[in-house]
Design a protein that fits this description.
Order of helices and strands: HEHHEHEEEH
Number of helices: 5
Structural class: alpha+beta
Number of domains: 2
Shape: elongated
Strand content: 15-25%
Distance between the termini: 97 Å
Number of strands: 5
Largest sheet: 3 strands, antiparallel
Radius of gyration: 34 Å
Strand order of the largest sheet: 3-4-5
Length: 164
């Protein structure tokens, strides 16, 4: 009753032989026609020299003759340009003039709300201490001089009394 194990390769071959006919990849494909810029994107931002050589080395790749425009250079393609950056330059200036004590530097911003708040105010005045990251927030119905200046003076007085 002992049965020899069957060879899995032979059993797989018999299964494959009954399936549809296999088409090898050497069969001719319909040529893909695209501009150099399109090939640049298709080939994950390949360089201009590689795209020029593409029709010589790939049978189904054709460059359209509609334009004589070459593939974009690294500096002309935003994606290529960003990927070639070796250093990201920060737009923040906090590191240039860093504060050494609380409220030495205070940032101020007026934020416009899309929807008025529960009290009808449409603007938020935000004060931010660079050193301690302490925040003051006030709301206002408008952002005219008569509203903003008293709020700035009030915050300045509060900082002088409470923190200095």
């Amino acid at each position: 009753m002992h049965q020899e194990p069957t060879n899995t390769l032979e059993s797989n071959q018999s299964t494959f032989s009954t399936s549809k006919r296999f088409q090898p990849s050497q069969m001719a494909h319909k040529p893909i026609r695209a501009t150099a810029t399109k090939w640049h994107k298709i080939l994950s931002h390949a360089g201009a020299d590689a795209i020029e050589q593409l029709p010589k080395h790939v049978v189904s790749a054709k460059l359209t003759k509609l334009t004589t425009k070459r593939a974009p250079l690294k500096i002309e393609c935003e994606t290529c340009s960003i990927s070639k950056h070796t250093q990201q330059i920060s737009q923040r200036r906090e590191h240039e003039f860093s504060a050494t004590r609380p409220f030495e530097q205070v940032a101020f911003n007026i934020i416009s709300l899309k929807e008025p708040g529960y009290n009808g105010n449409k603007y938020v005045m935000h004060f931010y201490c660079i050193y301690s990251k302490f925040k003051f927030v006030y709301t206002a119905k408008n952002k005219n001089k008569a509203t903003v200046l008293p709020t700035i003076h009030k915050t300045h007085r509060l900082i002088k009394i409470q923190f200095h």
